[in-house]
Amino acid sequence: MFQTGVISGVSISHAHASVDEIDAASGESVSDVVTSLQVDSRVTEAFAIQTCNRAEMYVVTESDAAGQEILTPYVGGVREGAVVFMDHEESLRHLMRVASGLESLVIGEDQILGQLKTAAEDARGAGGVGPIFDQALTKAIHVGERARTETKINEGALSLGSAAVRLASREVELSGATGLVVGAGEMGTLSAKALASAGVDRIIIANRTVPHAEHVAAEVDVDAQAVAIDAAPAAAATADVIISATGSPTYVLDERRLSDAGNTVCIDIAQPRDIDPSAAQIAGVSVYDIDALESVTEETREKRDAAASAVEEMIDIELDRLLTAFKRKQADDAIRAMYESAEYVKSREIATALTKLEAHGELTEEQKAVVESLADSIIGQLLAAPTKSLRDAAANDDWTTIQTAMRLFDPGFDEPPQGTTTPNHGPHVDGEIPQHVLDQLSDD
């Protein structure tokens, strides 16, 4: 059976949801989510992306209704207003917007493109990426790259780390301060560099793998020290600002671990949370999460309106190209299935006819060719009209007609009868659409 289907998606992001709601919709990993989605036999492909700002899942099924039915349980713990379901076209557009940075908390930030690429590889490793998602994700990544090279969408863009430092600067004087960065990944590295640029005197980087923390410490231009994650509570006692960005599934810092922190601004940009919100009950300790960065990132958003408009136009053009290619591919697959089924029947019936004719005397090669040519002509004339109708159905987004054709002409038949010959002038070879039909369609 040829691959067919449509994409259905669901998004829980900072645009409508809180940090806790995003956390509630997130799985252990992209691979786990993709594997879980594929348990349903209706799912032919699956994809997911999880960042500190979003938890999104996508499936390919025969219909959008089936896709939404499958995805709904995954967001059952999230309030209705925070959940956005997307059909095929909306999903494709959204993935392009995500890759371009238009859906990010910090408009135009570069980290999301790398995160999307990583999610695509994780989904591929879990067996979720087939021909439809391969095409969709490749296009989204291409658009994300074009947006950054052909527009100013990311010119001077803040990262979440630098946005966190900007927020911290509103709460505490950073010049001469000590900063603690928990986590040595991409966000931790960006946070450390942003703190250094803001004028802190000293930075402590805490991480489970100390050599990774040492690598980050070596990249900043101020006095920096790497410590194990277990040393973070002690380091917090000397820090004026803490930025935490680990991938820990549990709190790294809580009320007990921060009890000796004193006057400290804590900014948690991890998903799920690194810092227990209840730590704000400690005298002198302030705790902020990603939701608190909205006021900071809004300034960047306003500066990027012109670039965002250019990216939107780019997405419109690229989406139209992708949809056109997708529709054509779906129609061609259905047409190919139709001709393969017809070829199977033709071959079987020719074999039967030739056997009966040869019972009255051996046929010449020319006579056999006449019989085969007759059968080819009948098939070509009978299928020319439905072939055009399937192309028209694709152009009009009539997926029901295409999928019905795929089921009716499922080429998953048995091997052709013994003794059947495949003519070199038949309606198709190896499932290809006859050239005279293609020529006719090109003329229409």
UniProtKB/TrEMBL annotation:
Annotated Quinate/shikimate 5-dehydrogenase/glutamyl-tRNA reductase domain residues: 167-296
Catalytic activity: (S)-4-amino-5-oxopentanoate + tRNA(Glu) + NADP(+) = L-glutamyl-tRNA(Glu) + NADPH + H(+)
Spans traversing the lipid bilayer: none
Official protein name in the record: Glutamyl-tRNA reductase
Glutamyl-tRNA reductase N-terminal domain: residues covered: 10-151
Binding residues for substrate: 51-54, 104, 109-111, 115
Family: Belongs to the glutamyl-tRNA reductase family.
Gene: hemA
Active site: 52
Species for this entry: Natronocalculus amylovorans
Domain commentary: Possesses an unusual extended V-shaped dimeric structure with each monomer consisting of three distinct domains arranged along a curved 'spinal' alpha-helix. The N-terminal catalytic domain specifically recognizes the glutamate moiety of the substrate. The second domain is the NADPH-binding domain, and the third C-terminal domain is responsible for dimerization.
